Structure formats: structure tokens, C-alpha cells
Amino acid sequence: IISMTYFPGYGRATCIDFMLNHAGVKYERKQLHPVSFYAGSTKKTFGGLPFCQRSDGSFMQETVPIARYIARIHGYWPSDPKEIFDNDYLVQLYQPVLNEMDANCFMFGAKKEQAKERREVLFPKFFEKISKYIKEGWAIGDGSKIYMADFFLGTIYTDLIDSPSSWMSKEHEEYLRKQ
Q1: Is the pTM of this model over 0.85?
Q2: Rounded distance, CA 42 to CA 48, Å?
């Protein structure tokens, strides 16, 4: 990967940034303003963000497939079938959380309020489902390796707890800080 394009700030690209940086990949992080994305040809061409360009000139789209590509190349993909399941399970559980981050950024008025109500239901269910992994130190397997899911779960802190633009409630933030 030689470049990644995404909106300025946090979101779906954070885990990809984490993986590429951790792997020591030199790439260009291109930022695209939301108005340019929606008004220009990028949305028509790529459908969504992020997208990455490879050194052969081809493009890759969608966060999870890009992350899997990076994980397989740089050793962040498990080899044990149960660890593969755990990795995919955690990443899949996190997708609705990512969707709500987008909703918070790009919705206004009543729609934003509805999104807030959805989050109040979503977060407790999400934390309940991942609590086993939290208790085990966010680890898959014996915790001796870092996997793709670890980068996704790391964005809970950077994008939701530590971000000045986070929509996370104080109750959920306190729960996570105790873990």
C-alpha cells in the first residue's frame, strides 16, 4: 500500500493507520474533505472511504478487506482456526460501533438524536459481548501476538475515549477506563 485516502480525523481508517504504522509501512495519508467527497467524483468512483492504492496502481476499498490484506501480509492474521474465528468475531461485532461513529459525524438534528438513542442500546450489548476478551486483556489466544482485531479494538480508545469529538457517554467511558 502506497497511499490511503480518508476524511480528516478519526474513523474507519484508524485501524488501518495503526496496522500500517506498526508494520513500518511508508505510505501517504491523503485527507479528503467530506464536501469534496460527496460533491466530487470520489464517491461515484470508490463508493466510500477509506480506499488504498497499491504500488501496482490498483485500488482497494472497504476497511475490513483492506485490514485483512494488511494482516495477512504483515503477520497480524492468526493461523489457529479458533483464533481466526475470535479475530473475525471481534471485528464483526465492532462494525455497528463504527457505523454509529459515522452517524455522529454526518447526521444532524433529529437523525443525530435517534443515533444517540441507538448508541445507548448498542454500547451495553457490545461491551457485554466482548467482556470475555476484555477480562483476558483484549487478547486472542495466549496474547503473545498482535492480531488484526487488536488494532480495531484499539480504536475504541483513540476514537471514542480520547477523541475530543467523541460521542461516547461518560458512563461507557468510565466502564472502559476501569478495564
Answers
A1: no
A2: 8
